[in-house]
Write a structure and sequence with these properties.
The chain has helices at 18-29, 31-34, 58-70, 91-100, 105-108, 140-144, 165-170, 176-183, 200-204, 237-241, 255-270, 312-324, 344-348, 355-363; strands at residues 3-9, 40-44, 74-79, 112-114, 123-127, 135-139, 147-153, 155-157, 161-163, 189-190, 210-213, 224-227, 247-248, 277-283, 305-309, 371-375. 31% of the residues lie in helices and 19% in strands.
Length: 376
C-alpha cells in the first residue's frame, strides 16, 4: 500500500511564504494524531557542527515546535553527541554549538536536551534481535520520549548515500556506544606514533580493556596504550579522552553492512513509537556531504521544498526522487559527472548504492518505498 508524503514547494501562495505554510504541511501530515496530550515529544534535529551553514535554520523549526505544543505535546529539541571528536562531542560543547548556530529558546520556543547526557553515556538498551544488532543503544532522552518528530536536513552522505529521516533517527539518536556499534565492529584504532603513554584512556575505561605496555621500538622509553578487543565494549569514551588524538574510529568499509546497522538502529529508535512518529525532511541547500563537517559545500540542486510523512521510508524515497529529478547546479561538485542528471548520489559517490538503505528498511517493514506525493 502506498504511503502518503505531503509536499510544499518554496513558492509564495496567497502571500504566504514557507514559514506560513509549514503549519499547513504539519496539519495535513497528521501532527494532531501523532502527539498524545501532554506527551513529552522529542523533536530530533541536527544542530549543525560549528562552521556548518546547511542545517535547518532555527526560525524554520519554530512552527514545528508550535504545532507540537498546539497538538497538546510538550516539545523539546534534541540530538545526541558525536562519535568523532568535534564541537558536539559532549553536552557542554554541543549546547554551546547549538546556541552559536542560533538555537536559542527565544527563537525556537523549546528547551534543548542533549539526548545521551553529559558524556554520551546516557542510553537505553533496546532489544531488537535483528541481523546485526541484538541490542541497540539509544540515547535516553529519545528512547524515553512518548512521541517523536524527525526534522532532517536532506543531503548526500559518503557512507549512507544520503541523510534523511532514517539516518537522523538511527545514527543521530544513538548514544556514543550505539554510534560506535554502527560504524565499527572492532573497537577503537590506536595510532602508536601519537601515543605518549599518559594513561588517561586507561583511567577512563570502565572495562579494563586498556593497559600500558612497553614499546617494541627501543628508541622510545615511553610506554604506550594497548587495547584488548576481547574486553572492549565499544563505548568510544577513550577516543574523546585522548589529548593526543591517538585513538580513532575503525570505520566500517562494508557500506551495505553499515547501512543495515543504521536501519536497525532506526527500528530500535522507533520501537513503541511507530504510531507516534512524524518525519519532516527539508530539501533546502542540499549539500554533497553531512552537516557534521565544519563547512557546507555548494548545494547540488536548487532548493526544492519540504516533505512530511508518518512513514520514514516513504519520506526518504520521495526526497531522493525529488532531488534526482532536479538539474544539477553548475556551481556544484557534480556538474561534470555522467550521473549528474539522474542520480545525484552516484555523481558524487559512485561506489555507494544508496537504494540499499531504503530496501533494507522496507524489508524490516519500517515503511514503504511506494508513495503518493500530495502537493499542497
Amino acid at each position: 500500500m502506498a504511503s502518503k508524503v505531503f509536499f510544499i514547494d518554496l513558492a509564495v501562495r496567497n502571500n504566504q511564504g514557507l514559514l506560513d505554510r509549514i503549519p499547513s504541511l504539519l496539519e495535513a501530515a497528521g501532527i494532531a494524531e501523532v502527539v498524545p496530550d501532554r506527551a513529552l515529544t522529542a523533536i530530533k534535529i541536527h544542530f549543525g557542527e560549528r562552521g556548518n551553514t546547511a542545517f535547518v535554520r532555527p526560525l524554520l523549526v519554530r512552527p514545528i515546535v508550535d504545532a507540537v505544543a498546539g497538538a497538546g505535546g510538550r516539545p523539546f529539541l534534541t540530538d545526541a553527541g558525536t562519535l568523532y571528536v568535534g564541537t558536539r562531542g559532549n553536552a557542554v560543547d554541543h549546547l554551546n554549538t547549538a546556541m552559536l548556530n542560533g538555537f536559542a529558546y527565544s527563537v525556537v520556543g523549546a528547551p534543548l536536551v542533549i539526548a545521551d547526557g553529559l558524556d554520551g553515556g546516557d542510553e537505553v538498551a533496546v532489544p531488537v534481535e535483528l541481523k546485526h544488532c541484538r541490542v541497540a543503544y539509544v540515547a535516553s532522552a529519545v528512547a524515553k520520549a512518548r512521541a517523536l518528530v524527525s526534522v532532517a536536513h536532506f543531503k548526500l552522505h559518503e557512507a549512507a548515500g544520503f541523510g534523511g529521516a532514517i539516518k537522523n533517527l538511527g545514527m543521530g539518536s544513538a548514544s556514543r556506544k550505539g554510534k560506535m556499534a554502527q560504524h565499527s565492529d572492532s573497537g577503537p584504532l590506536l595510532e602508536a606514533s601519537k601515543c605518549i603513554g599518559c594513561g588517561l584512556c586507561r583511567e577512563q575505561c570502565a572495562h579494563d580493556a586498556i593497559t600500558l605496555v612497553d614499546r617494541a621500538d627501543a628508541e622510545s622509553s615511553l610506554p604506550m596504550a594497548s587495547i584488548d578487543h576481547g574486553l572492549c565494549v565499544g563505548c568510544a569514551r577513550c577516543i574523546h579522552t585522548c589529548p593526543q588524538g591517538a585513538l580513532g574510529i575503525n570505520w566500517e568499509k562494508d557500506l551495505p553492512r553499515f547501512m543495515e546497522r543504521m536501519v536497525e538502529y532506526t527500528a530500535a529508535t522507533l520501537k513503541g513509537k511507530e504510531e507516534n512518529l512524524l518525519c519532516i525532511n527539508f530539501l533546502t541547500q542540499v549539500s554533497p556531504a553531512c552537516d557534521c563537517y565544519p563547512f557546507a559545500d555548494s548545494p547540488v540542486v536548487a532548493d526544492i521544498g519540504v516533505v512530511a510523512s508518518r512513514d520514514p521510508v516513504a519520506v526518504d524515497q520521495a526526497s531522493m526522487d525529488l532531488v534526482n529529478a532536479q538539474p544539477p547546479l553548475g556551481s556544484s561538485c557534480i556538474k561534470d559527472s555522467p550521473h549528474a542528471s539522474h542520480d545525484k548520489v552516484r555523481a558524487v559517490y559512485p561506489q555507494v548504492q544508496w537504494e540499499h538503505q531504503l530496501a533494507y528498511a522496507e524489508q524490516l517493514k519500517m515503511g514503504s518505498r511506494t508513495y503518493d506525493l500530495v502537493k499542497l
